[in-house]
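Quick review question:
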C-alpha cells in the first residue's frame, strides 16, 4: 500500500453531523474529514452533544489523548483517509485505522457514483460514517472546480 500523506485523521468516536462552511477553519481541506464538522461524541458509548471547542480541539482532529471522553481501551485512536482513485463512475478511498500512531488495519473503500452506494465498505459503522463525511467534503470540493 502506498504511503498516505498528511495528517488526515479523525477520532473514531466522532459522529459528524454537518460540514461547517462558515470560513471559521483555516485551510478546511487539510482537516481530517476534508472540512470542519459539527457533531457529537460517542466515546462514552452514548451519543452526547459536544461543545464547539471540544469539536475543534478533539473530535475533528483525532489522537485526542487529552480528551476527557476518550476510553482507556479502544480499537483505534484515529482513522486516516485519502483518495486513491477517482473517475466519472467511482471514488476509491484508502483508509488506515491507527493506535498509538501505528497502523492497525488498512484497506480500500469503493463508492459508486451512479448508485450512490458503497461497493466495497468497511464493516465497522464508525469507519464508514467518517468515510461518508470525507467523501462528501471531497465531492463538494470537486464540484467547486468543475
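Suggested answer, residue by residue:
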Amino acid at each position: 500500500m502506498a504511503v498516505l500523506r498528511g495528517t488526515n485523521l479523525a477520532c473514531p468516536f466522532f459522529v459528524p453531523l454537518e460540514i461547517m462552511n462558515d470560513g471559521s477553519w483555516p485551510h478546511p481541506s487539510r482537516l481530517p474529514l476534508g472540512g470542519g464538522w459539527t457533531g457529537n461524541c460517542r466515546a462514552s458509548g452514548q451519543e452526547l452533544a459536544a461543545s464547539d471547542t471540544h469539536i475543534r480541539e478533539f473530535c475533528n482532529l483525532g489522537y485526542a489523548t487529552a480528551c476527557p471522553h476518550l476510553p482507556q481501551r479502544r480499537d483505534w485512536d484515529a482513522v486516516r483517509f485519502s483518495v486513491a482513485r477517482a473517475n466519472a463512475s467511482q471514488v476509491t478511498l484508502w483508509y488506515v485505522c491507527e493506535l498509538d500512531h501505528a497502523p492497525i488495519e488498512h484497506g480500500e473503500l469503493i463508492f459508486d457514483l451512479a448508485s450512490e452506494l458503497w461497493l466495497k465498505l468497511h464493516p465497522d459503522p464508525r469507519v464508514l460514517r467518517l468515510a461518508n463525511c470525507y467523501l462528501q467534503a471531497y465531492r463538494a470540493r470537486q464540484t467547486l472546480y468543475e
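Why it works: The beta strands are 9-10, 14-20, 36-41, 48-49, 78-86, 90-99, 102-112, 117-120. Residues 1-8 have pLDDT under 50 and may be disordered.
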